[in-house]
Amino acid sequence: MILFAGIGSSFSQGKISFIAIGDWGRQGSENQLLVAAQMSTWAMDNKANFVISLGDNFYENGVASTDDPLWKISFEDVYTSSYLQVPWYAALGNHDYHGNVQAQIDYSATSSRWVMPSRYFSFTKKLDDGSIVLFVIMDTSPICKSDDESKTQFSEDVTKIDSKIQYNWMDSVLSATPAKWKIVCGHHPVISGGYHGGQIEMQQEVEPIFVKNKVDAYLCGHDHDMQHLKRKGINYFVSGAGSEPRNCEGTKYTSFFAPKTPGFLGIDLSSGEFKATFTDYSGNVLYTTSITK
User: Fold this and answer.
1) Sign, Cα dihedral of 31, 46, 124, 233
2) What SS3 class is residue 204?
3) Helix or strand run (H / E) with residue 218
4) pTM of the entire structure?
5) What is the SS3 assignment for 72?
6) Neighbour-count burial of 21, counting CB atoms closer than 10 A to its CB (0-12 exposed, 13-18 middle, 19+ buried)
7) pLDDT (0 to 100) of residue 284
8) pLDDT value at residue 153
9) Residues with Cβ < 8 Å from 162, sequence gap 6 or more?
């Protein structure tokens, strides 16, 4: 397995705009199509540079191969807008581990936009003033071994994967970078008021790495809702409402939550501001917040 794959910036500009969405791959369901349409509008209005997929890319059991019909039914035939023909940097979710994980990596070689060089990887973007933005894409399913699903439904035994290798890699990437902004993305939440809630391994093993390295934001899915939470100086954004939403509730860390509402997270990032906006399936702006430096 490739432990690190760096994807350099192909552009330099005043701001970066991107969409973060998880738990979307539902074979063109009504909600998925509605959200896709609003993603297109946001991408057009904000000149989106890329999309980050936060895992559970294909329900219920991932994909079987690079030729699996789900690539067309759940991805290519849904996100057809010209404004979404941008790189899709993809993380793996627990449902993706029901199928052939390597096929999602290999699809990068044949797709013009799907980017998954390895199970976890990083890439950077550069702003006009020279500021660097670091993105770290995690593989959280092997980390969250307390999840019963990993013991009964995964196509491989993740207990044999040594998560310390990923921890050490992530700590090294985050600590060595000169980046002004550090954004980490994965599937499982650290904290959440949703159906699944926070994962103990993410809290005990991963959050200390975030705090040590002053990560600005962690973006995730898994819970099928939209949330913004803050703890220990970290902004946590849950964006797992890409197709089939669930209920959620507030916690003592919650700044915003939207239960049973399909939608997505859009981010405009400049040298001095990280502006995050949750938009629903009808195009309504539900919440906007900014992190400034």
Assistant:
1) negative
2) helix
3) strand 217-220
4) 0.95
5) helix
6) buried
7) 98
8) 87
9) none
Which stretches does DSSP call E strand in 42-131?
50-53, 88-90, 114-115, 121-127
Q: What residues have CB less than 8 Å from 210, skipping those under 6 apart?
A: 184, 190, 218, 232, 234
Domains and CATH numbers, the chain: 6-292 (3.60.21.10)
- Residue 277's pLDDT is what? 98
Start-to-end CA distance of the chain, whole Å, equals 36
What is the Cα–Cα distance from 216 to 214, expressed in whole angstroms?
A: 6
Alpha helices in 21-68 (DSSP H): 30-46
pLDDT of residue 8: 39
Sequence-ordered list of residues with C-beta below 8 angstroms from that of 17, at least 6 positions apart, any chain = 43, 46, 47, 48, 49, 266, 267, 268, 269
Tokens linked to 223:
């819970």
CA 149 to chain centre: 20
Which residue do the tokens 């819970």 mark?
223
pLDDT for residue 147: 78
Cβ of 80: how many Cβ atoms within 10 Å? 11
CA gap 278, 276 in Å, rounded: 7
Average pLDDT across each block of 10 residues of the chain; the chain has 293 residues. List them in order: 40 84 98 98 98 98 98 98 98 97 98 98 94 97 84 87 97 97 98 93 98 98 98 98 97 97 98 97 98 95
Catalytic residue among 95, 188, 196, 222: 196
Active site residue 228: no
